[in-house]
Amino acid sequence: MGLTVAIVGSGPGGFYSAAALIKDIPDCKVDVIDRLPTPFGLIRAGVAPDHQSSKKIAKIFERTAQSPQVRFLGNVEVPRDVSIAELRGLYDAVVLATGAPRDRRMGIPGEDLAGVYGSSEFVGWYNAHPDFRELSPDLGTGTAVVIGAGNVALDVARLLAKTGVEVRATDMAHYAADAIDVSPVKDIYVFARRGPLQAAFTHKEVKEFGELENAVTLVDPAVLPGADVALEDKGRGSQEKNVGYLRDYALNKGDEKPVRIHLRFYAMPVEVLGADGKVSAIRMEHTRLDDGGRVVPTGETFEVPCNIVVACIGTQSTPLDNVAYDERNQRFQNQDGKIEDGLYVAGWAKRGPSGTIATNFPDGSQVAEYAKALTPDAFKQGPAGLDQLLSDRKVRVVTFEDWKRIEAAEEAGASHGAPRRKFTTIPEMIRTLG
Ligand SMILES: Cc1cc2nc3c(=O)[nH]c(=O)nc-3n(C[C@H](O)[C@H](O)[C@H](O)COP(=O)(O)OP(=O)(O)OC[C@H]3O[C@@H](n4cnc5c(N)ncnc54)[C@H](O)[C@@H]3O)c2cc1C
After folding, report:
1. pTM for this one?
2. Taking CB atoms and a 6 Å cutoff, what residues make up the pocket around ligand 1?
């Protein structure tokens, strides 16, 4: 038997690794394990439901999954169903590609009040991730606050501002589309600690704020750089393009459309205020940047009454079994993707939560480089051993063929021009399989 590899996690980190392994090691066998019955990680559960073109890469991963060298084993959670130690006893190599699913905390008083959410849970809710099916955020509020200046913050604000018709044409969870359809949210504040030139969002996402049917975007012209300031134009992170759109929005009037998105810079949250255990307002503090570009609070605060706060300030990996974990950087301890001989890491579990889907590509090549140096161990049972273990434990493994049946049922259930109507619980998905 050739080399055997188990990959934990079927997102981009996992599938780029699988693709590189079968390309570089022709006789290897790769099992891609995921705790969900659905493959592709954040492509399904993170990427905005109105950005279907960004999800097309899943078709390429699908070709990898259908290679005779690769299997998908969904609905298998590590370590609930099989431990890392057991996988290492069965396979020549194990790759962790479990992403960074835990929300970072703001670290301010009041953030545990009802109505305050992290981006993973809020995005997971509207994207039908089964973990967040029951989140039921209360959108029956006039004002929503989003903290952060990255694309995730812009996704959240944009989707909250969309009309029912706009969201129903996407694959947003049906319950979330229903909630947004009837939501009375009229003002959405997006707060960034730094200025427009430091924002992490990209111009494609900023541009969309000018294309919303029911919402107008407002920017204070005083925070924008003057015409004499040199702006960088570096691809996705183009300051020039970002500022161009922000200058357009600075000309908008608040009464042009029923919903207003306020893009506010130089402000950081200092306290979430509450009444009856629920958020009632957020206290913000104005900031400035020092000569080194560091954020300095000014001591000048203001409050925004609101009933929902979504903190889009980043996520972190979840420690797994006894694998060495880097608490400071909140990811697995690794040296260029290697944890130790035979144990590797790829994607956000390796590097932390930044970059696009394609940013994970080189991680796969690196994993294959390490694996090429390994010699298959004739005593390791590989896929047959895992099948036996999961069967003994009565785990209902969802294969790639099973997933295609789930997908077909989701597509058949679609309406209003949506690409699919997603199942929102694991039992629903399993029932579909009979
Ligand atoms: C809200 C959001 C929107 C984004 N939008 C875009 C976009 O439009 N375009 C773009 O290019 N990039 C986008 N990204 C970035 C992109 O999604 C990431 O770069 C990419 O998904 C990271 O891949 P990954 O494999 O490391 O993690 P993930 O995609 O998170 O995959 C991890 C997988 O591991 C599984 N897993 C976790 N723990 C276990 C366990 N214990 N046992 C078994 N399985 C487990 C999970 O179920 C998941 O399937 C977005 C990210 C977010 C958060």
Report:
1. 0.96
2. 8-14, 33-36, 41-42, 46-47, 51, 54, 77-78, 97-99, 123, 152, 155, 320, 347-349, 355-357, 359-360
